[in-house]
Amino acid sequence: MNDLLNFIVTDLSKLEQSRIVQGMAAISALTGLLDIAFNRSKYIFMALSKIKHTISTYNKQIAFILLLALAIKTGIAINVIADNNTGLSKCTNDITELQRSCTIIAAEKNKSDTLITDLNKNIEDLKNNNKILNEQLNAANSNKDYLVEWEVGTRKAISDCGICATDKIPACDCQRSAITKSINSMPYPDGEDNFNLDHRLNRMGHLLLSVASDVLNMDLGIKKKTFTGSGISSPYSPDKSKIEGIREYWAPNFREENSTVWTWEFESPLLASGKTVHDILKETPPRENSDKTHPTFSECQNDNTLCQFDIGTEKNSPRPLLFRCAMLPHDSYKNTVGRPEAKRVFFSRYRDVIDLTVSNACALTGREIKPNDGQSLFIWIFMPEDPQEAVPATWESLKSNFENWEFNH
Fold it and tell me: Does this model's pTM top 0.70?
């Protein structure tokens, strides 16, 4: 190593003729020297000693600063002793400033490293948050409201048909077709349970009431304000008190000539309304039926086998005996159980009203018995021959049967 130092310093002495060349040579030589004496501070001191006696003061300053900078960079401690004769005193100040600058740079670097670390952490947090958001979005998409698109399509299809009225039969037929198509295309969720089924049916019912109430009222007697679709009637209450309803059914709108229908007309409604349903129907003969083989209701009450029903035990029968009442002018009656244009009409179980007064019985089915103002009280009893003739008045029944019910008027 000493030979190498002698060689470098001797070489530097020869280049004293040019200050620029000397400076460049000194820097180059010292750089090479430090590469060799990287972690050996004694060689650096040796270099300083030999440079001191060889090259000019100017180049000594440059060489010394470079040497110190590289030494500081490599972590080698160097003690500088001032020497006014060689100009090293000025180098000491430069070196001190250089050390201060290096300290500041190191501190800034530490801050930058901390900022970079924090930034990287934030990036990781953002990635994690993005992953969570994507998972939530995927979950939301898998659980999204699967009925919205169907509802929008149904609304448009029915609205495009126009308003349904008795004098606008094509619009009514168009709405019926749209309802049938909507019911058949209604989506089902995976793994549907009873709760979801009820929710889906109620959504369907509210949708149809909002866009097709006219045709539903015409065909099925559904009134937007009172029909619940639960199979339970909405009782009439003059004082608006809450009264529990009774089961109600949809049955065909038969003419009174049908052998399974009995019809009564009372021209004095208030007089009739004070008696029980059982008593007034037993005491009063029904309207004459054109079918001469049709037994009277009283005969059926006295002989259950004659009409194949048991008034006392048919409460849970799949085809219970049914009761219906209504107030209307005599001249308006068209010999049908309901309005002539209706396809299905509401009935309630006869067994649920048999012991009630006529007034209370009609109120439970949603009808009001008014004073005699030119209107008659009509009562009908219907005996289904097939369980499918009378179905619970629910949205589920409408969904299951609407397509098969005939609505040609």
Answer: no
